[in-house]
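so my prof wants the structure for this chain in the C-alpha cells format not the other one, which i didnt know existed until like an hour ago. anyway here's the sequence
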Amino acid sequence: MSGGRRRLISVQNLWLSVIGVLLGIPLGQGPLQAMMDSNGDQVDWPCYISPVTYVIAAAFVMGVSVIVGFMFQRRIKRIDMVEVLKGME
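here's what i got, hopefully its the right format
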C-alpha cells in the first residue's frame, strides 16, 4: 500500500512541477520586464532570455522536485491515511 501512495505523490509532484514550468514561462516574462524597467534610465539591461536558459531553468525545477520527492519518501511511508482523514473531520 505504501508503495502506491509514494508513487501517487511522486506523480502528483511531477505534474505540478510540469504545470508550474509551463505557466511560469509566459507569466514570468512580465514581472521580469517590470523589474528591469524599474532600474531607471541610468542602467540599461537587455531583457532577452535565450531558449537554452528556459531549458536549463525547467531542468533545474524538475531536478529539485525529484530531489524533494526522494527526501520525503521515508516520511510518506509513515503516513497513516486513516488518521489523516479522521483529523480532517
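also thought this was worth mentioning. The mean pLDDT is 81.
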